[in-house]
Amino acid sequence: xxxxxxxxxxxxxxxxxxxxxxxxxxxxxxxxxxxxxxxxxxxxxxxxxxxxxxxxxxxxxxxxxxxxxxxxxxxxxxxxxxxxxxxxxxxxxxxxxxxxxxxxxxxxxxxxxxxxxxxxxxxxxxxxxxxxxxxxxxxxxxxxxxxxxxxxxxxxxxxxxxxxxxxxxxxxxxxxxxxxxxxxxxxxxxxxxxxxxxxxxxxxxxxxxxxxxxxxxxxxxxxxxxxxxxxxxxxxxxxxxxxxxxxxxxxxxxxxxxxxxxxxxxxxxxxxxx
Length: 274
Fold this sequence. Notes:
Strand content: 35-45%
Radius of gyration: 22 Å
Number of domains: 3
Strand order of the largest sheet: 14-9-8-15-16-17
Distance between the termini: 53 Å
Number of strands: 17
Structural class: alpha+beta
Order of helices and strands: EEEEHHEEEEEHHEEEEEHEEE
Helix content: 10-25%
Number of helices: 5
């Protein structure tokens, strides 16, 4: 069923609910569509919010926070090599329809770690370098993590950015002219996007209305990769940034050296507190 509402600064109407499957499809104002699982009270609570002319956006954020609304997560089996090889199978978790080099970025607070998830470019040659170059003091790291989970650590793209296209004329094999659409590319051959930010910065999920705050865990939980992270970065005041590449299957988790961008000689497990 479709649940209509008058207006929202965050969502487009309607919200499409499947009561048998217990799912709801929400379309954000940037055009992105997401599927959520819902609990038994979500529909009635939403209807009450609409009837009372209260904010639907605030209701959705509250419902996500208290688990009345949970984003659907897809689990897939991935392989190293092909099925016929002896390489092990392992599970990877990722958000619906999105793939990336996932990482977790944290700061040590006492014997705990406060951290956030980053979806793209998590490898040391990108996120590792950006952290060392741009987020190299406790104050800068605090500001970075306070923004919550992010799609990208450092980008000029916004949630509204899209590749630019152009219409060109081509000829088919019979010499007939037809119109075709091509992406506009820069001198390096990369797609040109618009709109873009004047300077690069993190792209937080909160900027599109999602509630993804930092989480506090133990050091072992920080390195668990429970959201499919492949790399973990930890900032401590007298060591600066440390980096680990998480193991999958029979591959061990290993600390990496920022200078050589290669595995370090020894695995560091000690946390330096404030």
